[in-house]
Amino acid sequence: MTITSTGGPPQIIEVQIPSGPPGPQGPAGPAGAPGASSLTDLTDVTGAGGYGTSPVDDGSSTFPLTRVTTQEDLEAVLAEVASVTWHDIGAPNEPPFLSSFRNIGDPWSPCRYRLLANSTVRLQGTICCDDQTISDATWVPIFTLPPEARPDRTLEFSALTNDDAFSRLYIWDNGDVIWGGYALGAHAPIGRLPLNFVSWSTAGPAPAITNALASRP
Amino acid sequence: MTITVNQTTEPVNLTWYQGDSSTQTFRFLTAPDQPWDLTHVFVRSTARSTLGTSVELTVHIDDPTSGLVSIYPPLAGLQPDLYDYDVQFNDGQRTATWIHGRIQVRKDVTT
Known about the structure:
By secondary structure, chain A is mainly β. Helix content of chain A is about 10%, strand content about 30%. Chain A has a domain at about 85-205: Phage tail base-plate Siphoviridae RBP, head domain (Immunoglobulin-like, Sandwich), CATH 2.60.40.1830. Chain A is built from two helices and 16 strands. The interface of A and B includes residues 3, 7, 10, 12 and 19 of A. Strand 1 (about 5) of chain A pairs parallel with strand 2 (about 10-15) of chain B, so a sheet runs across the interface.
């Protein structure tokens, strides 16, 4: 029902409020039970409480303890992403050169790789081979990558060699980095083999990430 | 005319004419023939035009114990338009809107 009053002589609309007007506020009720003083006092919170954890509603009326991401956590992630850690081939505790390959030396970068936080490997450096019989060879290992740096499938590349030829280069899924023989140009001993263009995705997640996840409390 | 209201009641629509000394009086009861004592109750009323302009309506309580509340257009009058309005009560503890509706202000012919 809509009540309408149209002009005319003034008329009074009586308004009855069935429940009466709002009354004064009642007295304060009794004090409630004391609140929880620790996470473990909260009956609807599950998990082991502690520094850096917080209860979060999981949608089922329970509140699992969930780790809080702090500013320090974020800074650690950024530092990990920005860090540069090289693995020099032939250095102690690193993969050795095979088949008489070695670094060509200054001023050129040594042969080395690094694992990026996004599960990508970057390889760089310029190498040569002291084995003069390599000219007509076709399957010569240069070094072997550790498992965390290997691709999930075998990859093939071509590499400028001796500044005037191209040779085949393979990154095998078992970690072998293979010089595959000449594809174009003169077959000559390898006096210069730059590897600065080679990059690939690893088979598994980057250790920087898995280690960080494993170290979480 | 007596209406029983709650906060979801039907609107009370008013028709006023531009330039008239329009007014509307409400008598608030808490039970039949028992006026609501509006002593210490603060009453406000605002109207909003179709363009969203808010206008404070004049509220007058002649005798608080009688429960009579009258609303008037502002001194400057209301331009012809369709206004939403309500009447709000505050007793110092809480706020309640017991009357709402529309005011149609018609353009007058006799100036």
